[in-house]
Amino acid sequence: MQSPAPFARIGTRGSPLALAQAKLVRSLLSAAHGVGEDDIHIEVFSTGGDRSQDANVSLSTIGGKGVFTKEIDEALLSGRVDIGVHSSKDVATGLPAEMALAAFLEREDVRDAFLSLKAAGIDRLPEGAKFGTSSIRRAAQALRLRPDLNIVPFRGNVHTRLQKLADGVADATLLAMAGLNRLGETHRATSILDVDNFMPAPAQGAIGLAVRSGDRRFLDLVAPLDHAPTHARIAAERAMLAVLDGSCRTPVGAWTQEQAGTLTLKGEILSLDGQTTFRAEASGGDPQALGEKVGKDLLDQAGPDWLEQWMA
Ligand SMILES: NCc1[nH]cc(CCC(=O)O)c1CC(=O)O
């Protein structure tokens, strides 16, 4: 006998952070629609990003786009799951027309944390200290302040990285406060970094829900979970990133504030060594137009060949 179809099927990665996020979405869906949590299934997928993690391969080597989402996207489009739950910053710009990031939960702390068992802040690290990060944005921002730092590759889920820190693989690292908070590991942050020196990744700290664009039932189902101010901020930051080509080889930071429906978006692009920075800022009410404006301003400042010049 075939069991009845569940109310909804959620697709997620299997890391503790991804599972915590999927369970949060399940409980919110359950409350919003008055259905039991056991009627909302969580399906776990291993993505290319997860599989390459053990080998400590850098993400830029794998080649980026959707490396943490591809298998879930495919399951969504083929109808194996109905809702993909993602860290929005891991979702590529330029999604296929058949799928959409339809809702965003209220954004967590957008900032990065500094973590070290040896120094109270980045300025206190000894000359040439090992700075663990596989994020080209974090590496460039750290090198901008401390060109002497020795950047070492640092991948794996949050707990793996905390263990590597304890093992002395690096003297310090940066992690998103959002991830630490969602895992109940807030206390692991040595200090929280200011957004001017450490502008977060576009869309950092926001859980995004992907659904099939034409599937009215699930569009309606996730709608009550959408937090409009977060949605607007993420839309602006993703529009900016799309203009910059969304290359994961490009250090990009973004930070949006919202006040009474007006967004202010700050963006920056950096050279890999952190020694060149371009910044732009604008305000407006239309997230898409605002993001495109700031993105184009950054491209104009840097010149059309900036990618090639800096990445050569
Ligand atoms: N690529 C890993 C990743 N994707 C999203 C988060 C943090 C959670 C978030 O931004 O919502 C992290 C870990 C980190 O950067 O520390």
Number of helices: 11
Q: What fraction, in percent, of the residue positions are helical?
A: 25-40%
* SSE class: alpha/beta
Radius of gyration: 19 Å
Give the ordered list of helices and strands. Answer: EHEHHHEEEEHEHEHEEHHEEEHH
**CATH topology call of the largest domain:** D-Maltodextrin-Binding Protein, domain 2
Strand content: 15-25%
Low-confidence regions: none
Separation of the first and last Cα atoms: 60 Å
Bound molecules: ligand PBG
Placed side by side, the strands forming the largest sheet appear as: 2-1-3-10-4
Please outline the major beta sheet.
Answer: 5 strands, mixed
**Integer average pLDDT:** 93
Number of domains: 3
Morphology call: globular
